[in-house]
Specification:
This protein has 270 residues and is an alpha/beta fold. It contains ten helices and nine strands. The strands form three sheets. A five-stranded mixed beta sheet has the order 1-7-6-4-5, sandwiched between helices. Strands 2-3 form a two-stranded antiparallel ribbon. A two-stranded antiparallel ribbon has the order 8-9. It starts with a strand and ends with a helix.
């Protein structure tokens, strides 16, 4: 039986680090408040000149080397991200070019927090079908591009200025603290290869989507639902910043993850 086996892994995080104490200088929060709810003590942010594919490059290079391969050995790329370099063609073609992968097929998928799981399922399907032998799977994000802080707030958060932040900025930053405390930037990559030994590899995948809950974690604007696609009002209102209904998402997660875990175990006699 042909199986998909992870043969190499890689990761990359950018240099800029912002801890919870720094966030407390620009919004109504604290290290205790964040850690009790999320377990997060700090997050890394990409530099203004770093796009998502830039973060992916060193992670992918590390994964390919870890697998004992050369870039020319890769024959397909699946790139999971919600923060593509550009709306289209996304990030995957730019990653292909930066890695020197010639003309191998590559695609972006936009499954947000579940992106890497979806990407692995796709890689497994491509390998089991016999069409491809070595698939590069990468998940990378530059959430800093979505953080709606002023330059003053950024300078204080990054430790370049002592502050304090203006009252207006403090209020605006507090309005989005439910999101910004959660998300940072970075990249992870794996090489998935075909193996015929049947003793190791991906056993099975089970994925669901519930469109009824789509607005629990989404970005109101922009998009093809609007004419024009994007306008200044969307930016000014903050509708281009992702919304996370944290409590609802948490309830959905702790309810549905055990259900699907038990289902896939039963399906495979485990």
């Amino acid at each position: 039986m042909m199986r998909s086996v992870i043969t190499g892994t890689g990761m990359y995080i950018p240099e800029a680090s912002v801890d919870n104490h720094a966030l407390a200088k620009i919004m109504d929060t604290s290290d205790e408040w964040i850690q009790v709810r999320t377990g997060i003590a700090k997050r890394q942010y990409a530099a203004p000149d770093q796009a998502t594919s830039d973060l992916a490059v060193p992670a992918c290079q590390q994964a390919i080397e870890n697998a004992g391969l050369e870039p020319s050995d890769i024959d397909y790329v699946v790139f999971a991200t919600m923060t593509p370099d550009f709306f289209f063609p996304g990030s995957a073609p730019f990653l292909q070019r930066k890695l020197g992968l010639e003309h191998v097929p590559c695609l972006d998928i936009r499954q947000q927090c579940a992106g890497f799981v979806y990407a692995m399922q796709l890689a497994d399907a491509l390998i089991r079908s016999g069409q491809y032998k070595r698939v590069l799977v990468v998940g990378a994000e530059v959430h800093a591009s979505l953080v709606p802080w002023s330059q003053e707030s950024w300078s204080i958060a990054l430790g370049r200025d002592e502050g304090p932040v203006s009252d207006e900025d403090y209020e605006l930053n507090t309005d989005t603290r439910d999101r910004v405390v959660l998300f940072g930037d970075g990249a992870g990559a794996v090489v998935v290869e075909a193996r015929e030994d049947g003793e190791s590899g991906i056993v099975d995948s089970l994925i669901y989507t519930n469109g009824d809950e789509a607005e629990r974690l989404w970005t109101k604007a922009s998009g093809s639902s609007f004419r024009p696609y994007i306008n200044q009002d969307m930016i000014d209102s903050g509708d281009v910043t992702p919304i996370v209904e944290g409590r609802k998402v948490y309830v959905l997660a702790v309810t549905l993850m055990p259900q699907v875990t038990l289902e896939i175990l039963e399906k495979n006699g485990l």
